[in-house]
Amino acid sequence: MKTLFSTIVMVVLTVGIHAQSRLENAKKTASENKELILLNFSGSDWCIPCIKLHKNIIETDEFKQLESDHVIVYINADFPRNKKNQLSAELKKENASLADEYNKKGLFPYTLLLNEEGKVLKSWEGLPSENALAFSKEIREIREKSK
């Protein structure tokens, strides 16, 4: 009986600890490398502005260079609706936890630039009006100011 109880407690604790692992890992990496965290809430298979954001900004070389240059750590909190695109239960729970903390209004797309402690420095509601180059440049400028 003690073994069963111990096992249940360990599982609950492990799930609870893992629920914020991407954000916690991002905070650690950002702190070590003097980076910012870009957290994007999207509906990858139903939200047209989200799909455009990913295609026109996040999947571009200019944006990817932000990660390569250690300017940002990128986290995508995705909320797909189609059955074939469903995430693991663990990832769904983590994304819901991120939304509870950072996206209480349930906006899509919603993009946040955070410091290494998770404090919001800038937010974009909906599809940013900038192109990938201007979006990336703005992030670089915010990083320089926050040093």
UniProtKB/TrEMBL annotation:
It comes from the Bacteria. This is Thioredoxin-like. PROSITE patterns: THIOREDOXIN_2 (PS51352). It comes from Chryseobacterium taichungense. SUPFAM superfamilies: Thioredoxin-like. Residues 1-144 form the Thioredoxin domain. InterPro entries: Thioredoxin-like_fold, Thioredoxin-like_sf, Thioredoxin_domain. Pfam families: Thioredoxin_2.
